[in-house]
Specification:
GO molecular function: monoacylglycerol lipase activity
Number of helices: 14
Shape: globular
Largest sheet: 9 strands, mixed
CATH class: Alpha Beta
Keywords: Hydrolase
Pfam families: Abhydrolase_1 (PF00561)
CATH superfamily: Alpha/Beta hydrolase fold, catalytic domain
Radius of gyration: 19 Å
Distance between the termini: 54 Å
CATH architecture: 3-Layer(aba) Sandwich
Number of strands: 9
Protein name: Alpha/beta hydrolase
Helix content: 25-40%
Strand content: 15-25%
Structural class: alpha/beta
InterPro entries: AB_hydrolase_1, AB_hydrolase_fold, AB_hydrolase_sf
Length: 350
């Protein structure tokens, strides 16, 4: 079957990177941070004023720091924003040790924050980045002021059918097989598949934004480590799902002390909306923003609503935001996730 014969549902199921409209949005700056065995690309916005509390944004599987470019300017004057490309994604090269596990990514975030001395931060995470941020908040509470999770990839017993193709990447050989089967797909087809999978309404992507996303797709598919980073990171999520005991992600969610904002989309095809109720019960000090028409990347589809909910979180917990919340976990541990479909609303739980 040629690429032109592929049905829309086939391309929509393709587990490929979600890209944003532009490489560098107006007002953004890029820099490279070099750490032993690790190089990270960091996207930032010059703070509107000195003394603002820092914020750090962590993207999802196949994404990049660009995924936060719609949200960050809405928080100018409130936080000092930085978004990083996880190792092997965006403009960050693979880690020297090849560790793409959730713990490996969490270690990269922790090392960056420790080296920069930016903690405690308002920590944001989407999808894989939500699992990573949950782990960071659990093992290093001194680094986290508040936690905002957009469709966090926390373990589900009953995975949605639309999420299965992404999970299959974790199986050895599947990524190479998929690469062969999809070799005739154009970057435009792949990009339409990704937006169809990740957006509640793909029509919210402008024509200009879509063309820029196609160009970014072409660039990233040329990277020699692209499929390896995707495969190993997907495997890392699956491994984290099967980890039990005190190191399980749900157990770690219960240990998070930071005030937490949970954002779930009613049209999310990768993280089930029903998980919102479980997450609200797991995080001890949480509030829920339910967006019935949003997909997997609410911060890209509905950045104004996410920004407003975050501002409400900060205003409610202003005293907590000014100080580090509790003592860090031991170094060994630090290295070693309701159904309100009817309307957009927030719920607060303390």
């Amino acid at each position: 079957m040629s690429s032109t014969d592929l049905p829309e549902s086939s391309t929509a199921a393709a587990p490929l990177p979600l890209v944003s409209a532009v490489r560098v949005a107006e007002g953004e700056q890029l820099r490279t941070v070099s750490l032993p065995g690790l190089t990270l690309n960091v996207r930032s916005r010059p703070p509107a004023q000195q003394g603002l509390p820092p914020a750090l944004y962590v993207h999802g599987l196949g994404g990049s720091s660009q995924n936060w470019s719609a949200l960050m300017p809405l928080l100018d004057g409130v936080v000092d924003s930085e978004a990083l490309d996880l190792p092997g994604f965006g403009d960050s090269p693979p880690p020297d040790d090849g560790n793409y596990s959730v713990t490996g990514h969490a270690r990269a975030v922790i090392r960056h924050l420790d080296a920069a001395g930016r903690g405690p931060v308002h920590l944001f995470g989407n999808s894989l980045g939500g699992a990573v941020s949950t782990r960071v908040a659990a093992v290093r509470p001194d680094l986290v002021r508040t936690l905002t999770l957009v469709s966090p990839a926390l373990p589900e017993l009953r995975v949605q059918k639309t999420a299965i193709p992404t999970g299959l990447l974790a199986i050895p050989g599947v990524a190479s097989l998929f690469a062969k089967l999809s070799r005739d797909w154009t970057a435009e087809q792949r990009t339409r598949g990704v937006t169809g999978l990740c957006y509640g309404d793909p029509g919210r992507v402008s024509e200009e934004g879509f063309r820029a996303a196609v160009e970014e797709m072409e660039r990233r598919l040329e990277l020699p480590y692209f499929w390896d980073a995707m495969t190993r990171s997907a495997r890392g999520i699956v491994d984290a799902y099967t980890l039990g005991g005190q190191h399980g992600l749900w157990k770690q969610a219960e240990r998070v002390l930071a005030p937490t904002l949970l954002v779930y989309g009613g049209r999310d095809q990768l993280v089930s909306f029903r998980m919102a109720r479980k997450a609200s019960a797991a995080f001890r000090d949480s509030r829920l923003l339910a967006l019935p028409d949003a997909g997997h990347v609410a911060m890209m589809e509905y950045p104004e609503e996410v920004a407003e909910a975050f501002l409400g979180l900060v205003q409610t917990h202003a005293p907590l935001s000014a100080h580090p919340p509790a003592q860090a976990a031991s170094p060994a541990e630090a290295t070693a996730h309701a159904d309100p479909h009817t309307e957009t609303h927030t719920e607060t739980r303390s």
